[in-house]
Amino acid sequence: MLSSMAFDEPWRVYSSPYDHLRPSQDKVNVVEALQEFWQLKQARGAQLKNGALVIYESVPASCPPYVCYVTLPGGSCFGSFQNCPTKAEARRSSAKIALMNSVFNDHPSRCISDEFIERAIGDARTTFNGSQDVADNPNTGIGAFRFMLEANKGKTMLEFQELMTVFQLLHWNGSLKAMRERQCSRQEVVAHYSHRTLDDDMRSQMALDWIAREQEMPNVLAQELRAADAELEQARRAGRELRFPKEKKDILMMACAQLSGIDSV
Known about the structure:
Helix content is about 60%, strand content about 5%. The chain is built from 11 helices and 3 strands. It has helices at about 30-45, 85-105, 115-130, 130-135, 140-150, 155-175, 175-180, 185-195, 200-215, 220-235, 245-265; strands at about 55-60, 70, 75-80.
């Protein structure tokens, strides 16, 4: 039940210490404003493991429309959502949607609280026809979801989404199924991976898993890559948070590159 939580809500007006950075103001340089936002957060005491640096990644292309992704401190990712005639415009487009979500994420309604948890679990129970007993059992999907929410009280939804990405990838990669087959409880898995960050070692291991699948079932890698690319493109055009689909594509691209290296030996 560990599903994605997309940040596709419309822009809303509220009072914030970062009001002067609102991207709706025509004179605001959104690229500079986004960087300033995260520098201000760090100065106000936010714990940013890798600093306040905002990272841009332009997709190689010889002609428009151009696409750019921006990764925020912590790992949340957004992309240009318009048809951009220049690379500079693609960067501004990605910065705009990232700034909107960054500022909106600081609103109190985006903080995980007891009220928020009960509302989220209620929605999950309705969606999956789950009972209260199911929601209270940590070995069920909804119960594991509650456990994760309660373990992250006080964090914002962007921070929680960064954690969720790890579990989404583990589910997609088949790792969660393998752990269940080894009789690991959901609570044990959640407790272990809640402290793991998505790093190059985890990506490399997942890439190796896909190489093994490709050697067992030829063309599965190409099929999965096409599906991941289509998912990423759809989410980008909708202005959603992109970390999960982009990580999937990057891991599969890594697997393709490593497989090509193996085949050429």
